[in-house]
TrEMBL record, chains A, B, C, D:
The keyword Lyase applies. It comes from Mesobacterium hydrothermale. The lineage of its organism: Bacteria, Pseudomonadati, Pseudomonadota, Alphaproteobacteria, Rhodobacterales. Keywords: Lyase, Transferase. It comes from the Bacteria. This is citrate synthase (unknown stereospecificity).
Length: 254, 254, 254, 254
């Protein structure tokens, strides 16, 4: 039988009255001395990043904060506050929607890159991915940003800088670019890397497990969610629906 | 009748295919050039902070990431992943619990400080607060950290540094300390400022609206929530309950 | 110090291996022998309702299941499944929006009725309510259903039948009707009772605490939420936004 | 380009001012005339059930309302209200945890039964299931209720009654019993059907799609979630953690 004191266990935090240590570091030594991205890294990995590693992580976190109220998550956050939800409640409602389809592309792209890294065969891994999960390849192409998602090339330039500075080795950047070339050839037109493909390169370069790509995206997008929830709070409104009241919906019943 | 294109409106983000501007700044100019705390400020306020302002905000964000699995939010995140929840879903479940009692003390402390700032009368405002909302004063005392929450003095030292550097004027720090002195006299023993009282000083100094103190706390604590959800994912487990199975509960029925 | 076995305590359920008793009734004696509304009553109240009481509760639960995808909660549920959310996750996202403004009117109406019941002064209590919480009176008028919400008169007829059958005494029905008459006189036009005002009459007649009016509404509306989430699952779609992609939003920044 | 009025479409509800029709039935004709389980059926299926069908569905809904505060969902609901969450917010937090592992066994059991129904080969389908998803077979065995989950035999007796009354044909009951016999032989000891296996028999007999088994479970368990959230509200408490404060957790760091 498990004893109560063993039921919850963690290597993240140790506490006594008057003392809090995160990953072995007294909290007062961290506050004011490490950056917020370094703290995120420390909490998730157990060690502190180097300066160039923290800067690369920071760029990824900065890049994904918002894509507008047309996104289901942001729309939900804005509607929630008009229903009486508190800010944390609105944030929760929205983050809950960052699931496989809306928030999972970065995680999936890391998985794809890791498969290619392991086997070395871009074409075979893309083919296997599509056989298993369908034609859509996570991290490439964008239904709105034609021809190019403006975030991706900027992030990739920073990866190259970071690789030159020794923060990472650049092999996942090469893999991402190889996927991009493969798709362009296979489809006869450019299918450029999007933000999910580019942040996935960063997270893979920095050694994060694939599921954490989704978690880090949630930390980033939570910023935009909060900003929109707050803006809607100031705009006011009661029970704001998705479309103006006059539109309602099409009834498809008999 | 509202037109559809006016139904959703925002000053946060502007987009065209291939172009994303946040608060008027093209996204590619922000990525790699501003810190994550500066991005948070920009999204919530519309302007960029100075360097010392961003550093003070960063210290507050770093300070509040975790307080262990005994907190209802962290326990919920850890249980959620053992129920099959995705990481974003676990984060949502947990952030939903950062409500008035669990995540609202910072917001309430900012309100209290602002009242004192407006009237100039510490004793009268504390008395009014307690008449309206009960004896518990947000931001002071801690049921676990005796005698002192180690995060508060460190944060207050950084506020003094920031005030010296011109990042803020220090008057909310004085208000917080005045509340602390008042409570010590009134109760005949120290009731030291805790993390919520100290981060509230920072958010008030930096000019954030009170509700955003809760929102910023959610951004910070989401880091710990993610770290614990991920650690539990790696620990495994199915349908983890709050206590070991052998304990169950006390039946109080007839 | 609390002992672990006392930390969680409940009068709702008692269990041993092979035995489950809800409110003192072995579960196998309830299954197939009591109605679902009677089970809801038993769980919330500790006793079994009479047949007429259960039927009146059932009518209220049937009445509130849906008001269409224009409601923020239903829209959220439908968007959630297109983001990859599981059905329970979509339901959670939607129920989270049934807060004070979207799901609280029934609870508020019960409070208003109870105040009137206690003081006997309709005009004074309406005036006090509006002083405290603003002009909007919960449970009366409807922004869409002009002249009359079709659910309210049907529910009120059932309350009268139930009162005649001895299931309740009818005094909250009289209070609701008195509020309706007062508003018609005060505003010089009919402001008819809506579904929240009518279900509040039922919940007050049946002796439910005001906050449970919100809880019961959530049980009822969860049916519509599930139906819409499932219909959207079958319709398909990825990352469905609130409006068609072509509309986006109006940028109000500088 | 999609037109706005087509963006949201549904066969569930049709509305005009003063008129609400659910699945083609004016709401006032349903209120007081059909049971709550019949309404659930109508909303999910589009047609009304027969009386025996509605009664069998009702038994399943009654059976699954609660399994105590040791369940992660119930614990979360109870903790949530002590954090300041509203009742709908507490319900949302809890339903979010009824995911694959905590709330998905019924859905999975329906899938398993449907596979066996399609192929007719119990042993082969069990083997295929275990190859794909691991040893654990949804709907059979119980970690707490030894030897038998008291809900399952009662539900199965009602299925036999319903089959005799023509409400269903009984073939999924036979499949469930065949799985039970197969497991007993294969493991050399009884592995009795549990509540998920028995409600899955009912949902399959009644023709519900497998994912709706999860949805219906959520409707049922929401009753217990609400009852516990309300009981905790009346018990009071602030920031209730999973274990008494004295226990905290085991630190497993270096």
């Amino acid at each position: 039988m498990s004893d109560v004191s063993d039921w919850w266990s963690t290597a993240i935090i140790d506490m006594e009255p008057g003392r809090i240590a995160l990953r072995g570091h007294p909290i007062q030594d961290l506050i004011g001395n490490i950056s917020f991205p370094a703290m995120i890294w420390l909490m998730l990995r157990g060690t502190l990043p180097t300066e160039p590693q923290a800067r690369l992580l920071e760029a990824a976190l900065v890049s994904a904060v918002d894509h507008g109220p047309q996104a289901p998550s942001i729309a939900t956050a804005r509607m929630a506050v008009t229903c009486g939800a508190s800010l944390n409640q609105a944030m929760a409602s929205a983050v809950n929607l960052l699931d496989d389809v809306h928030g999972g592309a970065g995680e999936q792209a890391v998985e794809l890159y890791q498969r290619i890294d392991a086997s070395g065969d871009v074409a075979a891994e893309i083919s296997r991915w599509q056989d298993e999960r369908g034609k859509y390849l996570p991290g490439f192409g964008h239904r709105f940003h034609k021809p190019t998602d403006p975030r991706a090339p900027r992030l990739m330039a920073l990866v190259r800088d970071a690789a030159a500075a020794g923060a990472c080795d650049g092999r996942f950047a090469e893999i991402g670019e190889a996927v991009e070339r493969h798709l362009a050839t296979a489809r006869g037109k450019p299918v450029p890397m999007n933000i999910d493909g580019a942040t996935a390169v960063i997270y893979a370069e920095l050694g994060f497990a694939a599921p954490l790509a989704r978690g880090l995206f949630c930390l980033s997008r939570s910023v935009g969610i909060l900003a929109h929830a707050w803006e809607q709070t100031e705009q006011g409104g009661r029970n704001k629906g998705p479309t103006p009241p006059a539109y309602r919906w099409t009834y498809t019943g008999g």
